[in-house]
Each structure stands twice: as structure tokens, then as C-alpha cells.
Amino acid sequence: MELDYDLESIQGMRTALKRAKAAQKEYESFTQEQVDRIVTAVAEAAHAKARSLAEKAVEETGMGVVEHKTIKNQVGSKDVYESIKNEKTVGVIYRDTAKKVTEFAYPFGVVAAIIPTTNPTSTAIYKTLISLKTRNAIVVSPHPSAVKCTIAALKICHDAAVQAGAPEGIVGWISKPSMPATTELIQHRDTSVILATGGGGLVRAAYSSGKPAYGVGPGNVPVYLEKSCQVKKAVQMVMDSKTFDNGTICATEQAIVVDQNIKEMTVRELKNQRAYFLEGEEKEKVAAVLSPAPGKINPKIVGRPATTIAQMAGVNVPSDTRVLIAEETRVGKDVPFSLEKLSPVFALYTVKDVDQAKAQCIELLNLGGRGHSLSIHTSDDQIAEMFGHEMPVSRLMVNTLSSIGAVGATTNLKPSLTLGCGSYGGNITSDNITARHLVNIKRLAYGVKDVEIPKPSATVQSPKQADPEENDLEKVISEVLKKVDSEEVDPQKVSAIVGKVLQKYQ
């Protein structure tokens, strides 16, 4: 009998989760040396296949650029490995002899990982590495549009881990992904923690699952070209960043905010860098393709070249066009160019000074990027620091490519492909998610202070509230005693009264 697709998907998930749980129980007893040997083997195997996995991802999804996805895979394997290789994640990880506190690491258990179609192989590698480093197992739900390339990356990681001594099944996946299977995965009793990188619906589902979860919000990243910046260099970095993998990294710049003092020079440099400015009917046509409904981005434009997007809109542009730009004055769901587009398309806003720039950036972030990232190009460190204080973002890149700077490629931020948005974005952390987020810490603490506990002081007892029944009883007894005094006694009544009194106060 042939199973229904969703049933087969759910059964595959349950099988992978069962194997992962059993493997993790065994893996939990491994030493730091064993764990590090496995993590090293996985990182090396994935790095060696960075190019071929990039080719598979572009071929399957139609998104991005092979050379750029190769770099992503290298960041997700080698750079992530270098950032976590020396971390202690087994046994005693910290000891303070003076304060008599000792910290021990212990794993969560099984990590449920959701992988986006925009970064299907690099994210799978990175999440596997940080899971294995912390003695967790991992079960992955690939995006249906990128299932083949994601599983190819996971198989490389699994086989390398097993060859280095890890238990079979320590890395698992849903071969036929579906929403019902993913939903059950993140809610299953055997799932311990969730790493959700994907659309808003899946992230909300992760946070609603009742499990610990790391989810990330959208990244509608503004880039501010402040008047003191080196315009030519800044524009080149902004263009290189925007076209990196056709804009599929969530930290990629989405809107240029430029000081009016340098606008003319900036526009000239953008055109020199093969940006095409849309006006009038051309702008309207591209806007309609970008967002068929208010606040919604057309998934068919994500990760596609600028020339392809123009062609979809029926707009003729030079064949070497790298980026499409439209000048805007408004921000809103009904302004397609102001949204997070995940493609080489920019909105351009002109501001008169720093205060207006701050207001413009906040308005863009409030539309859908609060807590994520912001980029600024300036020669004035005080302005950069002011933005650091005042912008509602978790990372602010200065004079670099925002897309790969945020993930740690051109900055000293932790290499990561899941970028927390903090409380600004409704996330539990503002960090670049890495191995330390997947390890628990227990603490052994000796008593070091003598405390004398004071004895309770004597207190005045409040008068007991009179019980109506007791009052009645006392009245009857009083009457009986009067009768006793006058020798009018009913022995049975006295016996009943005494019995009642004894029962009351026993």
C-alpha cells in the first residue's frame, strides 16, 4: 500500500527522531577529545565539498550565485569551526577556586533545525557543527524547494561524523519535508530545542511549540551613507554586498539612506557600478512584480539577478545591470521598494542631516526589520556610536559589507547563519547563534558565608473568632448548670451535651 505523502513525511520524521535520540544518549558520554575529533572531521568534509554543494543549491533552487554560495559554505564550515574549536563543551568548563563555584556543561538532547531555501547548504552545515560540538543530535527539516541539496550536505556531515566515531543517526533529516511533519518535529516530546531559520510563520510556530527555541526575524536593513564617508569605496561595498548571492542573506542592505550633501556623487558612483535607476512606468512595473499584494514579496524574485527581475516586469535594462534602484520618499507595506526584498533591488532615500537619517532608518526597521541589523558608512566615529546607542538593532556594521559582515566574514562577530534579533524583534537573544547557545550549564557552589538565621519574635495572638456553634453550646451548658444548681436535671440530656462537647474538642 502506498502511503499518503504527508503520512510518509511524518513517519520519516519520527524514524529520524527516534534514531537521533538513541544516538544522542550514546554521544552524551563522549569525552571532549572524542567530540572535537568528530567536529573537526565534519568541518573538513563539508569545507572540501563547498563548491559542489553550492552548485547543487543553485541548480535546485534557481537562487543565488555559485561562487558566492561557495563562500557561504566555507563560512558555515571552516569559519564556524575555527570560532568554536577551542570551546569546552564537556564536563567541567569553568572553575573558580576562590569563589568555590564549578560549572559543568551538559547537552540539550535533540536539536530540531529548520533550514531556509535561501541558504540551504551553508545553514545545514553550520547547525550540524554547533549541535555536534555540544553533544547534541540534530534532525533537520529542509525547505521543500531545496531538499536535495540540503540532504546532500547533511549526508556529508553524517558520514564524516560516523567515520570519526559518532553513533549512526546522530545527524538526521526529513527526506520528504512537509508542514505537518515539521510541525510535529518541533512539538515532539523527543525534541529538546529548536533552531528556526526561515519564514515568519515557521519562526512563530517554533516559539509557540512549548520548547526552547531560537528563531530569527526579518532583516529590512537600511544602509546610511553619512556625508563624511568615502563615497566611492562605500558605494562599491554596498553594491558588492547587495549582489552577493543575489541578496539572499537576511543581513543584506535593503534601502540606501544618503545625505543630500553627497547624493549627486553617490548616484554617479552607483551608476558607475552598473546600478539602473527606475523611474515612472518602469518603477511601477517592477513594483508590481516585487509585491503582488501589500506587504508580500513575490517569492519568484528572491535570489534572482537584477536583469531577470527587470525582464519579469517587462522592463529593458542593460545586460550588465547589477542592481535596480528606485527613489522613494515613503515607507509602508504599500511601497514595495521599502520592503525586505532578498534580491538585488534597492530603495533610495535622501535626508538632509543625521537626525532625519535616524528617523528614516527607524521607520524602515519598524516596517519589518526591528532588532536585526543596520549598516553605516562614515568617517565620524561619534556618529557611528550614536547610531549604536539609538538604533533598535542587534548588530550595526560600520564601513563594511553588511551581508557578510553580519555573519562574521568581514568582522569579528561570531560566524553564524542564524542572527538573533533580541527583544526588539521578539527573539530570546540578540546574539549570532553559535555553540554556546546549545549547551546547558549546571553549577556546583560551596557555602562560603555564615548566616545567622534570626529566631521568630513573640507575637500577640489575635483573639480567636467565636464559632456560632460553640456559642450555642456554651449557652446550653450554662442553662444545664443552672438546672443542676436547682436540681432540675435530665441525665440523658446531660449525657448528650457532654458527648457533643467531647466530639467538638477531641
UniProtKB/TrEMBL annotation:
<dbReference type="InterPro" id="IPR015590">
    <property type="entry name" value="Aldehyde_DH_dom"/>
</dbReference>
<dbReference type="InterPro" id="IPR016163">
    <property type="entry name" value="Ald_DH_C"/>
</dbReference>
<dbReference type="InterPro" id="IPR016161">
    <property type="entry name" value="Ald_DH/histidinol_DH"/>
</dbReference>
<dbReference type="InterPro" id="IPR016162">
    <property type="entry name" value="Ald_DH_N"/>
</dbReference>
<protein>
    <submittedName>
        <fullName>Aldehyde dehydrogenase</fullName>
    </submittedName>
</protein>
<dbReference type="GO" id="GO:0016620">
    <property type="term" value="F:oxidoreductase activity, acting on the aldehyde or oxo group of donors, NAD or NADP as acceptor"/>
</dbReference>
<feature type="domain" description="Aldehyde dehydrogenase">
    <location>
        <begin position="14"/>
        <end position="274"/>
    </location>
</feature>
<dbReference type="Pfam" id="PF00171">
    <property type="entry name" value="Aldedh"/>
</dbReference>
<keyword id="KW-0560">Oxidoreductase</keyword>
